[in-house]
Structure formats: structure tokens, C-alpha cells
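Hi team,

As requested, here is the filled-out complex form for the uracil run. I kept the field names the same as last time so the parser does not choke. Let me know if anything looks off before we queue the next batch.

— J.
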Amino acid sequence: MRAVDIIINKREKGELTQEEINFFVQGFVKGDIPDYQVSAWAMAVLLNGMTPQETTDLTLAMVLSGRILDLSGVVDIAVDKHSSGGVGDKTTLTVLPTVAACGLPVGKMSGRGLGFSGGTLDKLESIPGYRVDLNTDEFKKQLKEKGIVLTGQSMDLAPADGKLYALRDVTGTVPSIPLIASSIMSKKIAAGANAIVLDVKVGKGAFMETLDMARELANLMTQIGDLAGRKTICLLSDMNQPLGNAVGNALEVKEAIDALKGGGSADFREHCLHVSAHMLAVGKRARDLDEGRRLAEKAIADGSAFEKFRVLVQAQGGDVSYVDDPDKLPRAKFVEVVKVHRSGWLSQVDARSVGEASVALGAGRAKKSDAVDHAVGFLIHHKVGDRVEKGEPLFTIHANDEKKQAEARERVLAAHVFCDEPASSLPLFYE
Ligand code: URA
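And here is what came back:
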């Protein structure tokens, strides 16, 4: 079997066999198939798609590329969550401590930024010392002792996804339904989850721009979850505008901490409560969503959710003084408040443009080896549907380079669209 023939087969819209997929994935992980061939293959998959069978085979091949974590002796039900990727999506940072504070132990392996969407690991690394490289023994020990873990994908779990994810980020091959479905599900299955809450983002700032595409991704992932014997729930949530106010690593950590203390933007808080309620219900810590929500609200109100975040940061070597005083987090040299230039209603805040502008400021990567700048990003002060008056703050830029700051100003100004008639606000969840 030759890698080039598999690439050609996919280029010609053929259906790959399980044997071909296994050969390709194993060859990639062993280093026998180089990045350039895998990039060409990923582009062929992006353009020509995969059948549900091929996607399931790809998922299982990625799962089998490494170990499978067995959490049965550690927790009663291993519940995991995953977002399909968005702009300003710092949900994990708030939801994980919240549900852990409610008595549901949660261990999660997260990823880095992908394309225009941010990544939890990049955000966490804004906290000096925070380790995102726990091995599986450390993962299990911390989960048992502290009831919360938030780390990077361990090298020995689904290593094929780790390698492919980094390559897709820089080859324009992210927004492919089969590649996203297999990437997410391989990680979740390998990480030992019994039940999985998937937050599938829909809209301009998501890889799935339409509800139909999001449903297709959700159905595919649920199907794969069922086949693997994992209870899988998908929420379809809005990503036309950024979630919350902050976009950019340290800025998002600060907003997540605000939300853990009952503050922060209302949309983000509400989003977190809804996801937490689902996790608590599926993890059998709550009888239903109403009870899950009440428990989550209580954990935030009584300070236990915030305390759990401190426990997490401390357990993973982070300097907890940055959690206690988020103003210590990395700060940009230039902070500019851009004002509203005309009164009206906001009919659009294009999340993708904001995400791309944030990457251009340095918050994400253009090449695999790029370092991210934790300090840069935006605070977006208004939501679609808001009435805004000329001269009010519209957004704040945090930049470390004046030229990039000027470019960001133009891009994010253009991302805001005003109209003279009242504009409807956007729902948080569609389904
Ligand atoms: N999140 C993932 O884990 N993988 C993708 O491919 C996209 C979003």
C-alpha cells in the first residue's frame, strides 16, 4: 500500500477502506508518512468528504493510535465536554470548576487554538507555571484527589489526532465535518469518557456556519459515540458573535474568573450554567436540568466554584496569585478604547472577523511553531440587538504592536454593523 495512492483515491472522490485508513493513520504516527502527504490527504478529505463509515473508521484508527484511559477505578461516571471551537469560548474554564464544585469529578484534556478559534491550553498558559502536560498517572491521581483536571492531550492518547490537529491548523483543513467529528470523538473516547456533552458552535465564528452543517456534525458525533458505547449529547449554540466580552488568552481567563465569581457578561454566564446543568444531569449528580442548574448557581454563589478553580491551578503548578488577582495576568503595551461612531442598533458583530483579528494580533498561530502572545486581544462591549450611542466604548484593543493595533482597529470596526431599526438579539442555544 502507498500513501500517494490513498491520497489519489480520496482526490478522485473514492471511499477509503478501513485497511487504507489504518495504514495511513499508523504511517503518520510512526513518521513513515510525512506531513506534506498528510496535508494533501486532509485537503482531499476537506474537498471531497468522507462517508459515516470512513469517519467512524478514522475515529477508531485515531483512538487505537495510542492508549485508552480507563477511569473506572477513579470516578463513577467519567463525564467530559468539548466545544467544536469558537471565538471568546472560554466555557471550559468556568464550567469545569463549577461542576466539580457540585461534586461531579471532571478531568478534561483540551486543545490549542485552531484557525481563528481559541484553545483552552493557550488560555491556561497565561497563568505562569500552569502545566498542561500531565501524564496519565498524574491525571488519574489528581482526578481522584482533587476532583478536577484540565490538561493537554496526553501524548499517548490519540496521538494521531494531536499530530493531525496541528497540521490542519496551518493547512486550511480545519472546517471539514468528518475531520472535526473524528478529531473530537477520538480524543473523548481515548480519554475514557462514559458520557460526553458536546457544544457544537454554529455561525460565522464557528467551523459550522449553518444549522444544517452543525446538525450533520452533531448527528455524526452522536452516531460515533453510540457505536463506541458512550452517551453523547450535543448542544447547538450560537457563534455568530463572540461569546462573552473577552477574546484573547489572558483576557478570557480573567472573564472566566469573573464568571466563577458570579460576574462577567450575562450571555457567557448563562451559557456556562446551561452547559454545567447538562454535565451534572448526564453525570447523574442532578436528577434533571433544573436541578443541575440550581446546583451550578449555588456553587457560583457560595464561592465553591471559584475555590475549585484555585485548587485546579495550584494542583497543576500554576501561580494562584494570578487567579486571586487577575490584573497580574499578562498585559499588552497598548490598550485602546474604540468608540461608537454613530448611534443605532447593532445588527452584527462578526465573530470570525474578531477571531481572525485576534490571531493577527498574535493571540493565535499562523504556523505550527509560532508562540502565542497571551496578552493581546479584544474586549467587545456590546451584543447584537444592543442600542448604542455615538461616543460610547464599542471595543477595546489590547496590542503589543502599533501596526497590528491599527489593522485590528479597522477589522473589528468593520465587524460591527449598525442599523437604524431595532435589531433582534441572537439566541444562545438553537437546539
Ligand atoms: N475541536 C477539535 O478538537 N477538533 C477539531 O477538529 C475542531 C474542533
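Two things worth flagging: Residues 331-419 form a domain with the Aldehyde Oxidoreductase; domain 3 fold (CATH 3.90.1170.30). The two ends are 44 Å apart (CA to CA).

Thanks,
J.
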